[in-house]
Design brief:
Layout: E1 22-24, H1 35-45, E2 58-67, E3 70-71, E4 74-75, H2 83-86, E5 91-100, E6 115-123, E7 126-133, H3 146-153, H4 164-172, H5 178-184, E8 199-200, E9 205-208, E10 214-223, H6 232-239, H7 245-255, E11 261-270, E12 296-305, H8 310-315, E13 328-330, H9 334-350, E14 420-422, H10 430-441, H11 444-458, H12 463-476, H13 478-488, H14 492-496, E15 516-517, E16 520-521, H15 522-527
Antiparallel strand pairs: 1-14, 2-5, 2-12, 3-4, 5-6, 6-7, 8-10, 9-10, 9-13, 10-11, 11-12, 15-16
Length: about 525
C-alpha cells in the first residue's frame, strides 16, 4: 500500500508540513493567511450535499437554561460579564442537537462513535452556540488534521466500507489520539441514550469580566439522570431491534413529561501558558484534572419540547463555535480557531447564506438584532426600517441607518508577540500519561470491553500496524499493552522494541522547541 508521491495543495504546491497551521508562536493565535489550511478545510466543508459531512445522524429538542448567578461559591460576575451566566430568574430559550459523528444520516445510533452535543442559547444579547461532544477530549489538537482524520474514519473511497486498518493507520501516527481511543473503544464510546450522556465544549474558551480580565475555561454538561453506557454486546442486541433507539428514548421521555436535565459547569484556570502543567491547557486531547480544576456549577438546562418538524428544526439547525456572546471569548486553541471558520462555512454551504433567517437558527424574539447584510440565495427577510432602510452601510454621514453599539465594559485585549511559522507542540509528555491514567481508572468491566474491542479491530489490521498500536498502548500502561498483544497474538517484546515515530520524542518526553538568537532561528543565525 506504499505510495511515494509528494503531497501538494490543489494548486500543486508541495506541502512541507501537513501537521501544523501557521501561528504566532507555538501556542497561537492562528493567522487568516493560512492558505494551505484554508484550502484544505473549505474543500472539506463542501464534500457532501446536502447531508452533513460529520454529525449527519441527529435528534434535537427545545428547552431552557437558567443561571445560578454563581460560579462555584463566587458571583459569576467575578469571571464573566455574559448576562446569560450572571442574571438569575431568566429562562433562556435553547435548542439542542445530539448526534453521532462518522455515520450517515440513517446509520444506527448504537454505533461506536463520539456523540455530538450542540447547544444553541437564544439569549437577549444574541445567540451563543456551544458545540462539543459527550467526551471531554478529541483525537487531534490542530485543525489542519481534521479532514485527514474524518477521511480515515469514513468509508474507503474504493470499497465504500469503514475499514479498521484505515482508522488505526491514522491513529498510529498520532500519539495524542491514544487518549481519545481509550475512551472511545471502552463502553464510553456507546452512550446508552442521549439523556444519560455527558456533554462538553471540548475546546478551551475564555471568560471575560466587566474589567476586561480573562480566565481560561472549559464548559461541561453533567446529566442529572446519571451516566449510562453500553458494551458492544448490549449495543448489538439493541441495534437488532431499533436503529434509532436514542431518538425514540429522547422523544418518548419528553412527550411523557420526563424532562431530561443537565447541570452546566465550568472549569477555570488562570489565563496564560501555565508552564507549571505537564500539558498545554489549550491542547484538546487532554483533560484538565478535576482535582486541580473542579467542575463549578453555573446553571441548569431542561429539555421540555420535541420539534414540530424534524427537517425544519433538526436537519436545518446550524451551529458554529464562533457564535459567542459578550463575556465569552476565544482562546488560542488551534482546534477552536479552525472549527470557528469551518462550522459556519459549512452551514452557509449546506443550508445557504441566509441560514440565520430560519426560525430555528434566528435569535429569539426580543433580541434587538439588526444587520446590514442583504440578499443572497433564499433571502426572505424584508427591512421595514422607514427611511433608514435605504442605508445598508455604516457609517452614514447623514446619521442614518445602523450605528455601532456603545461599549458597556472594558474591552478585552490580548498582547500577542511571536515568530510566524508552523510549530509542532513541545509539551507532549502527557500524550500517553492521560491515556494510561484513564485505563487504570476504568472499572474492570470497562477495561475488559475496551481490550476486547481493540483486539477485534486489530486482528483485521496488518501486523505492522497492530505492532505499532500495541507499542502505543504499552507506553500508556504496561498491562494495557500486554493484554491487547496477547489477544491479537502479537509478540509484545517485538512491539516494545519499536523506535519512536520519526519526528516524535520518546514517550514521556517533551519535544525541543525552536531556538532564536537576536530574533532569528539559531540555525539561520549560524548560517549567516
Amino acid at each position: 500500500m506504499s505510495d511515494n508521491r509528494t503531497l501538494t495543495t490543489r494548486q500543486g504546491h508541495p506541502v512541507r508540513d501537513n501537521q501544523s497551521m501557521r501561528t504566532v508562536g507555538e501556542r497561537g493565535p492562528a493567522t487568516l493567511e493560512n492558505y494551505q489550511f484554508l484550502e484544505k478545510i473549505t474543500h472539506f466543508d463542501r464534500e457532501r450535499i446536502p447531508e452533513r459531512v460529520v454529525h449527519a445522524r441527529g435528534a434535537g429538542a427545545h428547552g431552557w437554561f437558567e443561571a445560578y448567578g454563581k460560579i462555584g461559591d463566587e458571583p459569576a460576575s467575578k469571571y464573566t460579564r455574559a448576562r446569560v451566566l450572571t442574571e438569575t430568574g431568566v429562562k433562556t430559550p435553547m435548542f439542542v442537537r445530539f448526534s453521532t459523528v462518522a455515520g450517515a444520516k440513517e446509520s444506527p445510533e448504537t454505533e461506536r462513535d463520539p456523540r455530538g452535543f450542540a447547544v444553541k442559547f437564544k439569549t437577549l444579547e444574541g445567540n451563543w452556540d456551544l458545540v462539543g461532544n459527550n467526551l471531554k477530549i478529541f483525537f487531534i489538537r490542530d485543525a489542519i488534521k481534521f479532514p485527514d482524520m474524518i477521511h480515515a474514519f469514513k468509508p474507503d473511497p474504493v470499497t465504500n466500507r469503514q475499514e479498521p486498518w484505515r482508522f488505526y493507520d491514522f491513529i498510529a501516527a498520532h500519539p495524542e489520539s491514544i487518549h481519545m481511543v481509550t475512551w472511545l473503544k471502552s463502553p464510553w464510546g456507546i452512550p446508552a441514550n442521549y439523556r444519560e450522556m455527558e456533554g462538553s465544549g471540548v475546546n478551551t474558551y475564555k471568560l471575560v469580566n466587566a474589567q476586561g480580565e480573562a480566565v481560561l475555561c472549559k464548559f461541561h454538561w453533567q446529566p442529572k439522570q446519571g451516566v449510562r453506557n453500553l458494551t458492544s454486546q448490549q449495543a448489538s442486541e439493541i441495534q437488532g431491534k431499533d436503529v434509532g433507539h436514542a431518538t425514540r428514548d429522547l422523544y418518548d421521555n419528553i412527550t411523557a413529561g420526563n424532562f431530561p436535565e443537565w447541570e452546566f459547569c465550568v472549569q477555570i484556570m488562570p489565563d496564560g501558558p501555565n508552564d507549571d502543567l505537564s500539558f498545554d491547557p489549550l491542547d484538546d486531547t487532554k483533560r484538565w484534572p478535576e482535582d486541580q480544576y473542579p467542575l463549578l456549577p453555573v446553571g441548569r438546562m431542561v429539555l421540555d419540547r420535541v420539534p414540530d418538524n424534524f427537517f425544519a428544526e433538526v436537519e436545518q439547525s446550524a451551529f458554529g463555535t464562533g457564535v459567542l456572546v459578550d463575556g465569552i471569548d476565544f482562546s488560542d486553541d488551534k482546534m477552536l480557531q479552525g472549527r470557528t471558520l469551518s462550522y459556519s462555512d459549512t452551514q452557509r454551504y449546506r443550508v445557504g447564506p441566509n441560514y440565520l433567517q430560519l426560525p430555528i437558527n434566528a435569535p429569539q424574539v426580543g433580541c434587538p438584532f439588526a444587520t446590514n447584510q442583504r440578499d443572497g440565495q433564499m433571502a426572505y427577510y424584508v427591512d421595514r426600517g422607514g427611511e433608514s432602510k435605504h442605508v445598508n452601510y455604516e457609517p452614514s454621514y447623514l446619521g442614518q441607518g445602523l450605528k455601532e453599539a456603545e461599549h458597556r465594559a472594558q474591552e478585552y485585549r490580548q498582547f500577542i508577540e511571536g515568530h510566524l511559522g508552523r510549530y509542532k507542540p513541545t509539551r507532549v509528555s502527557d500524550d500517553y500519561a492521560q491515556a494510561g491514567e484513564r485505563y487504570r481508572t476504568f472499572q474492570d468491566w470497562e477495561r475488559d470491553d475496551l481490550v476486547n474491542n481493540l483486539i477485534g479491530d486489530l486482528k483485521q489490521c496488518p501486523e505492522a500496524l497492530a505492532l505499532r498500536m500495541v507499542w502505543h498502548f504499552w507506553n500508556a500502561d504496561e498491562d494495557y499493552g500486554r493484554r491487547v498483544a496477547e489477544g491479537v497474538g502479537i509478540d509484545l517484546e517485538k512491539a516494545k522494541a519499536l523506535a519512536p515515530l520519526p519526528g516524535q520524542p520518546a514517550p514521556g518526553e517533551n519535544r525541543a522547541g525552536p531556538t532564536y538568537t537576536d530574533g532569528k532561528l539559531e540555525a539561520q543565525a549560524a548560517a549567516e
